[in-house]
């Protein structure tokens, strides 16, 4: 069996480049909006690929993981009755109706809170197994989608998400173990860019991260390409804190909205280890202050999809019911911001990603933490929505 290496090749996208590359490589993904090909090549042919005409740079595909606690036991949050659902926005209007939120994750399960009384999973694409019907073989993506847009139907409204009128576009880029590689994430972002008008995708949620690769890394370039095309990209700061420079990529991007946890001083179990002060801190390698904003990330209640792959772990889960569970991590903080952005875009659909970023900054509440811990401060949904906006925002 051939030993194939997956590469991310930067070059001009076009027939001439593709013809040259195809002589040595199998093209897996063509990413015209980002400026890359993802290819597979025999290990012994790698030096030849480096010498091909028109190649600007070659990168290896890095491993990337969901920034969560794998639905394992978490402790109660003091002062919140054991849950943070009280911190969710409960808006009467807007609800995010008409706004598409792309959730690039482990998939999205067809749970009641997303599919009844109206199915709000507007589209689903699978870059792992190629399936066409929505599913989630890990539970992380469904939990994230529920925080952003669940309507709380199964729980009588108690566990409703931030924007319960929004539609969800599920993009499966992580496997059943909650991991994947950056090439699939980039392919998912390319799909979102290409289909943004068809599904009115105004927000992209990436509760994923990998080690800081710098601002010129392909994954960072990918999220910035989406941002430049009018999509508000919200990315997890990661769970590698509290050391400086612990924000994960693509959260190191100067453009996108990087979200940390506002309550990570509470001890939680993440990936089998009990952690405290886990939220990623800046600065980035380029000395950019990160994260940008904070939202609750400890013991967050949201949708639990029913999947056979989790049956063996049921004894380890602290579930609320068959429909809900609690998870922790900056993965949970990020969709709260994504949902808040959807509310704002329903109210003021003309806002650009830069406008949204400015308005989040202006309405955030300082927690008096260092800048590279809190960014602008904590998300204030009520304060965000109460701002009066003219068609021209003065920064």
How many β-strand stretches?
18
Query: In percent terms, what proportion of residues is strand?
Result: 15-25%
- Total number of domains: 2
The CATH superfamily of the largest domain turns out to be Peptidase S8/S53 domain
SS summary, helix count = 10
Give the helix/strand class.
alpha/beta
CATH class of the largest domain: Alpha Beta
End-to-end Cα distance:
58 Å
| Estimated helix fraction | 10-25%
Question: What general outline do the C-alpha atoms trace?
Answer: globular
Q: How would the blueprint of this fold be written?
A:
Elements: E1 4-11, H1 15-22, E2 25-31, E3 36-42, H2 46-50, E4 55-60, E5 63-66, E6 100-105, H3 112-115, E7 121-126, H4 140-149, E8 167-172, E9 179-181, H5 182-194, E10 201-206, E11 208-209, H6 218-228, E12 232-236, E13 257-261, E14 268-270, E15 273-275, E16 293-295, E17 300-303, E18 324-327, H7 330-347, H8 353-363, H9 371-374, H10 381-385
Parallel strand pairs: 6-8, 6-10, 7-8, 10-12, 12-13, 13-16
Antiparallel strand pairs: 1-3, 1-4, 2-3, 5-9, 5-11, 14-15, 17-18
Helix pairs in contact: 4-7, 5-6
Q: What would you say about this model in short?
A:
With 395 residues, the chain is of the alpha/beta class.
């Amino acid at each position: 069996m051939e030993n194939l290496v997956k590469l991310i090749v930067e070059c001009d996208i076009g027939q001439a480049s593709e013809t040259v590359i195809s002589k040595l490589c199998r093209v897996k993904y063509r990413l015209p909006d980002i400026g890359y090909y993802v290819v597979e090549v025999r290990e012994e042919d790698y030096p030849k690929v480096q010498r091909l005409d028109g190649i600007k740079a070659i990168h290896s595909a890095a491993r990337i993981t969901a920034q969560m606690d794998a639905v394992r036991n978490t402790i109660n949050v003091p002062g919140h009755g054991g849950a943070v659902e009280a911190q969710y926005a409960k808006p009467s209007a807007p609800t995010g109706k008409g706004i598409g939120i792309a959730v690039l994750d482990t998939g999205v399960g067809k749970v009641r809170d997303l599919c009844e009384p109206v199915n709000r999973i507007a589209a689903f694409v699978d870059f792992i197994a190629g399936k066409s019907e929505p599913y989630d073989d890990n539970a992380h993506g469904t939990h994230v989608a529920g925080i952003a847009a669940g309507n709380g139907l199964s729980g009588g409204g108690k566990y409703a998400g931030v924007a319960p009128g929004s539609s969800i576009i599920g993009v499966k880029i992580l496997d059943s173990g909650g991991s994947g590689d950056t090439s699939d994430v980039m392919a998912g972002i390319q799909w979102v860019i290409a289909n943004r008008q068809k599904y009115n995708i105004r927000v992209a949620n990436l509760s994923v991260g990998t080690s800081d690769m710098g601002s010129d890394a392909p994954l960072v370039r990918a999220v910035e390409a989406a941002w430049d095309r009018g999509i508000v990209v919200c990315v997890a700061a990661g769970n590698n804190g509290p050391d400086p420079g612990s924000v994960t990529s693509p959260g190191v991007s100067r453009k996108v909205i990087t979200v940390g946890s506002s309550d990570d001083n509470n001890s939680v179990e993440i990936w089998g280890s009990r952690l405290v002060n886990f939220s990623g801190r800046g600065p980035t390698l380029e000395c950019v202050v990160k994260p940008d904003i904070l939202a609750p990330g400890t013991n967050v209640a949201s949708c639990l999809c029913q999947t056979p792959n989790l049956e063996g772990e049921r004894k380890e889960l602290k579930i609320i019911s068959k429909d809900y569970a609690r998870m922790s991590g900056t993965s949970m903080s990020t969709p709260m911001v994504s949902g808040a952005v959807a509310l704002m875009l329903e109210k003021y659909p003309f806002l650009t990603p830069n406008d949204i970023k400015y308005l989040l900054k202006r309405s955030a509440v300082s927690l008096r933490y260092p800048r590279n811990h809190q960014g602008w401060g904590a998300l204030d949904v009520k304060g965000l929505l109460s701002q009066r906006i003219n068609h021209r925002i003065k920064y």
